[in-house]
Design brief:
With about 90 residues, the chain is mainly alpha-helical. The chain is about 55% helix and about 0% strand. The protein is built from 3 helices and no strands. α1 crosses α3 and α2 packs across α3.
Length: about 90
């Protein structure tokens, strides 16, 4: 697993866009200020896997760093080519 140069910023953006996705999807809940980053990452990862928007990690490989990496890859593919977070990847 090669870490992306802007991975932390990409994960932050994935959580922001993921919160919007949750609202538009309806029925999945939403993030609020009381949820920890780890909980948000886990929830969004599992939701995207369930909706078949990302490939699941192998069983036993579902660690927070690997979930973060998957979310960073997902959001980097959603961003336009000229977005600043995609420039260094």
């Amino acid at each position: 697993m090669k870490k992306l140069k802007n991975e932390a910023a990409l994960v932050k953006e994935a959580l922001r866009i993921g919160a919007i996705y949750l609202q538009k999807r309806g029925g999945a809940g939403e993030f609020d200020g009381t949820h920890s980053a780890g909980l948000k990452i886990r929830f969004l990862y599992h939701l995207l896997v369930q909706d078949k928007l990302i490939q699941p990690l192998a069983k036993g490989e579902e660690t927070e760093p690997k979930m973060k990496h998957k979310l960073a890859l997902w959001i980097s593919r959603q961003l336009p080519d000229n977005h600043p977070l995609r420039q260094d990847n």
